[in-house]
Design brief:
This protein is an alpha/beta fold. It has 19 helices and 31 strands. The protein folds into 3 domains: 324 residues, Alpha-Beta Barrel (TIM Barrel); 193 residues, Rossmann fold, CATH 3.40.50.1700; 114 residues, Immunoglobulin-like. Bound molecules: beta-D-glucopyranose (BGC). The site of beta-D-glucopyranose has 7 residues, from loops.
């Protein structure tokens, strides 16, 4: 995995005082050797100083060059080890404490997942990595890869959906993009941080083998593809032990997966210096912990030998390896102005690729060109598009801010709308049509606005944020507004801007629904492109939309209402039991024989596609090939998905491909399964086991597609080392 450092770079990174000494060991050649070399030069205090970081906001007499970002870990200048300057970055370089910064906001991660395209993920990562470097950061707290197990989770917009292959592949690609700029990226939050209610005090209980086959597999795949410099552990407990002192889970990472980088804590997730013995390498945002455990307490523990010196060395070595692997040790830190126009195009094309057309009856979309009366209603569509709240918040110049609702956590700038008005963009694109706007607050007024129009486009929003969960019902009477508009105008199109799934009691009354998620800083333009047909929508749902709460593994949200307070440990600890195990999302729906509102993988476009000729080869694994043809009249993008299951098991996604096809064009799609996607994890033997069986393979448009091509093939028994 190593990026081998050239001798010249190594020498350049070393301080002159070190170079001047003649009796130095041979110059280090690899990342690991270099880490060892630097470690050998460090004093005890230098080692201790790089294993804990601080939240700049609480640093007294903060030097002017330390911005109010997520964190800072001082480096060792005499050895050329730079400070770690950390920014949040689930969807752009976050603006902690810096309103109206110029960083570009990508769409939400869930929208990225809707693209089903690792290349798009990598481009987005490369863009924000570049902006990070231009702004003087060298660590991005990115790579959220917890599986969506709870559709009400306020942070689903920072994650990549409910499937381990999809989430892992996209997170890995995004990390690779970030790190191509010599900026270190994390993956987070290890692991099972699946809801925000009570995240500091809840115990997530799950069968360990099922965890391997689901959330851990997403991390494993992300780490293989992205080689992140660090992994951030979560706040919650897993099976009784806090994530940031969970030795069994750290052993999986470091021993089973041979992960060479370091584990950093989430901010305020450490509970004692003994976490070092469990395997936590770095304490982050230490002022948020009850004590700065990796400061004086860790030093005392080393003196008392309750934490061995060898462990401190391992912690430092891993941090240096993470820095070396990601290129941080070799990067120069000369801040540079951003090119927000060019970077904004990356955000817009990601949004265009991730918008999901959920329903389109009678071809109401795309809007016909020419003079038309379009009634645009609701969602602040006149000023911008909604974004998600919390540490990941990016507030581009010109953003609009509203007071947060009463249930929101007591921090953050409020509800932020990115400055990209769908109304404005529609006016620019829809030709000479007459476009009106109604705020969509009063159902009667909204209906009146819709009545005389050729078409009504209702924007409905649900703000979600870190630190709180939501219900699946659209807030602020928006369901009633939509129903009233639909009753007044049969050609009603609903555009959703949501952090995750919502219920749609009005679905049968409207001919078209578009899921535009939190579409980022050019989201308004992207929505207008899709509505007018300039872009043929091709997003696919990375998460199942339930038809009712009763369909969920936990119809009642455990810890409901436990929004974050100033005292993070307030409240009575409770347990969340993940009884669905590895049957997350669409697998749960299949197992329960439930029909969701919209299935995982679902999405329409303005073209049509035919699948044919599925052949499946078995043996060591499964390889499926089939032909996809664009049978429509315009170019379109299709995302065929291949699912497989052994008899008696639920189907798992084993491959997907996003392909653009001209009318009449066809392509053979071939997918080979990662054997772990066919295996069960044997917890006692600590091995993956593939059963010899005839697997059913389907190639279709979404999970459970009744028209999918189907074939079977026998896979040989196998036992695989993790
Ligand atoms: C979040 C992390 C974030 C950190 C630093 C925490 O509250 O859970 O995702 O990286 O803060 O801002």
């Amino acid at each position: 995995m190593a990026r081998v450092s050239a001798l010249a770079l190594v020498l350049a990174a070393l301080a002159p005082a070190v170079l001047a000494q003649p009796a130095q060991p041979a110059p280090p050649a690899s990342v690991v050797q270099r880490a060892d070399y630097l470690l050998g030069q460090m004093t005890e205090d230098e080692k201790l100083s790089i294993v804990h970081g601080r939240l700049p906001l609480f640093i007294q007499n903060r030097p002017a060059d330390i911005v109010l970002s997520a964190g800072i870990v001082p480096g060792v200048p005499r050895l050329g080890i730079p400070d770690l300057r950390e920014s949040d970055a689930s969807l752009g370089v976050a603006n902690a404490g810096r309103d109206n910064d110029d960083a570009v906001a990508l769409p939400s991660a869930l929208m990225l997942a809707s693209t089903f395209d690792p290349e798009i993920a990598e481009q987005g990562g490369a863009m924000i990595g570049k902006e990070a470097r231009q702004k003087g950061f060298n660590v991005l707290l990115a790579g959220g890869v917890d599986l969506v197990r709870e559709p009400r989770n306020g942070r689903n917009f920072e994650y990549l959906g409910e499937d381990p292959l999809l989430a892992g592949r996209l997170a890995g690609a995004a990390v690779r993009g970030v790190q191509s700029n010599r900026v270190l990226s994390t993956v987070k939050h290890y692991v099972l941080n699946a809801q925000e209610s009570g995240r500091h005090i809840l115990d997530a209980v799950i069968d360990p083998a099922a965890l391997r086959e689901s959330d851990l597999l997403a991390f494993e795949i992300a780490i293989e593809h992205g080689r992140p410099g660090a992994v951030m552990c979560a706040y919650n407990k897993i099976n009784g032990v806090y994530a940031c002192e969970n030795k069994p889970l750290f052993d999986i990472l470091k021993d089973d997966w041979r992960y060479p980088g370091f584990i950093m804590s989430d901010w305020g997730a450490v509970h004692s210096a003994d976490a070092a013995n469990a395997g936590l390498d770095q304490e982050s945002g230490e002022q948020l912990d009850k004590e700065a455990y990796y400061g004086a307490p860790l030093k005392a523990a080393l003196t008392a030998s309750t934490v061995p010196q060898s462990r401190l060395d391992d912690m430092v070595r891993r941090i240096l390896i993470g820095m070396g692997e990601s290129g941080v040790l070799d990067a120069s830190s000369a801040p540079d102005p951003l090119n927000t126009n060019a970077d904004g195009i990356v955000a817009q094309s990601q949004a265009e690729a991730g918008i999901v057309l959920l329903k389109n009856t009678g071809g109401v979309l795309p809007l016909a060109r020419g003079a038309r009366r379009i009634a645009v209603i609701g969602g602040h569509a006149d000023i911008g598009v909604l974004s998600g709240g919390g540490s990941s918040q990016v507030i581009p110049l010109g953003s609009h801010m509203f007071k947060a609702p009463a249930w929101a956590p007591p921090w953050g700038p409020g509800v932020v709308y990115h400055p990209s008005s769908p109304l404005g963009a529609l006016k620019a694109l829809a030709g000479a049509g007459e476009i009106s706007f109604d705020a969509g607050i009063d159902p009667g007024a909204a209906a009146k606005a819709a009545r005389g129009a050729d078409v009504a486009v209702v924007f409905a929003t649900q703000w979600t944020t870190e630190g709180a969960d939501v219900s699946l019902t659209l807030p602020d009477n928006q369901d009633a507004v939509i129903a009233a508009v639909a009753a007044a105008n049969p050609r009603t199109i609903v555009v959703l801007e949501t952090g995750g799934p919502v219920l749609m009691p009005w679905l049968g009354q409207v001919p078209a629904v578009v899921e535009a998620w939190f579409p980022g800083q050019r989201g308004g333009e992207a929505i207008a492109q899709v509505l007018t047909g300039a872009i043929n929508p091709a997003g696919r749902l990375p998460v199942t939309f339930p038809a009712a709460l009763s369909q969920l593994p936990r119809p009642k949200l455990d810890g409901e209402g436990m929004t974050e307070t100033a005292d993070l440990s307030a409240g009575k600890p409770f347990t969340v039991t993940y009884r669905e195990g590895a049957d997350v999302g669409y697998r749960w729906f299949e197992k329960q024989r439930q029909t969701p509102l919209f299935p995982f993988g679902w999405g329409l476009g303005y073209s049509s596609f035919r699948y044919e000729g599925l052949t499946v080869r078995g043996g060591l694994t499964l390889t499926a090939s089939f032909r996809v043809t664009n049978t429509g009249t315009i170019e379109g993008t299709e995302t065929p998905q291949v699912y497989a299951a052994a008899p008696g098991e639920t189907r798992r996604l084993i491959g997907f491909r996003r392909i653009a096809l001209r009318p009449g064009e066809s392509r053979v799609v071939s997918v080979t399964a990662d054997p772990r996607l066919l295996a069960r994890f044997d917890e006692a033997a600590k091995r993956w086991r593939v059963a010899r069986a005839a697997y059913t393979v389907t190639a279709g448009k979404f999970a459970g597609d009744p028209e999918a091509l189907t074939a079977t093939a026998v896979v040989n028994a196998a036992s695989l080392q993790p």
